[in-house]
Amino acid sequence: MNKLFLLCIVCMLSFVTIERADAQQINVLTYNVNACRNEAGNVDVAKTAKVIADANVDLAAIQEVDVNTKRTRNVDQAKELAKLTQMPYHHFAKGIDLQGGEYGILILSKFPIKDSFRIELPRKSGEQRVLSGVQVELPNKKNIVFMNTNIAGSQADKLAHVEGIINASKSTDLPIILAGDFGTMPGAPEINALDQNFTRTCPTEDCPKVYPVKAPTRAISHIMYTPNSFKTLSHNVIDEKLDYASDKRPVVAELELL
């Protein structure tokens, strides 16, 4: 009887070990980099890249990225950020043409990108905004979709953008992480609409603030995921203290795939 009991315990421990080994934790960042300019307008791609690299995340959603525009010295910031952060995979999605180049959003990934997309979001009046996404393969061989966006404009525009995002999310059965600058505080109609379809990593209306960078009063950058696909382990905002690389602070979250 004692030998049988010990055998059962060993089997149970083995199962727990296998289950833990199969668990996949993912560190995610969303960061509006303001074209790699600080509040004074000074451009420093290396400083921006250091903030991202020091966060040591697996997936990064970067907004307001310049590619070969005159205002930021005709530098391809998407390629430079990928190189300087040593994130091996990246996907840039143009929002608009700007000053001889392009202005849009960037995804950086430590995981192999198997597919990518760019969707122009519906709008009522303002500047064209886009949703970009990648399908990545995790170390445990499971696949997820990581989406990035930067919505803005009137409330009517934002609600149209959100409707486009929600519709796009229904095109896959894979777990989705959505991150970006939504220009909107929790409790606004746009965020309420997203809350009906996603789980935010900070589910309350009193989330850590990101803007303005030195004394933030607004939580407008968010990370969220399709319900029952992940578990939130942590949610934080990075405070660079005195020497800020952008006019907003980055948001980071640690998730576990269920």
CATH superfamily: Endonuclease/exonuclease/phosphatase
Tally of discrete structural domains:
1
Backbone shape? globular
Write down the overall mean pLDDT: 93
Largest sheet, strands/sense/barrel: 6 strands, mixed
CATH top level assignment: Alpha Beta
Task: Name the strands of the widest sheet in spatial order.
Answer: 3-4-2-1-12-11
End-to-end distance, in Å?
36 Å
Q: Give the SSE order as H and E letters.
A: HEHEHEEEEEHEHEEEE
Q: According to CATH, what is the topology?
A: Deoxyribonuclease I, Chain A
DSSP, total strands: 12
Task: Give a quick rundown of the structure.
This protein has 258 residues and is α+β, with helices and mostly antiparallel strands.
Describe this structure in words.
The protein is an alpha+beta fold. It is built from five helices and twelve strands. Mean pLDDT is 93; it is low at 5-11 and 13-21. It has helices at 2-22, 45-55, 77-85, 155-169, 189-195; strands spanning 24-32, 59-67, 89-98, 101-109, 113-120, 130-137, 143-150, 176-181, 199-200, 221-225, 230-237, 251-257. The longest helix has 21 residues, at 2-22. α2 (45-55) links the parallel β1 (24-32) and β2 (59-67). It has a single domain (25-257), classed as 4-Layer Sandwich (Deoxyribonuclease I, Chain A). The strands form two sheets. A six-stranded mixed beta sheet has the order 3-4-2-1-12-11. A six-stranded mixed beta sheet has the order 5-6-7-8-10-9, covered by helices on one side. The protein is globular, with a radius of gyration of 20 Å. Helix content is 24%, strand content 34%.
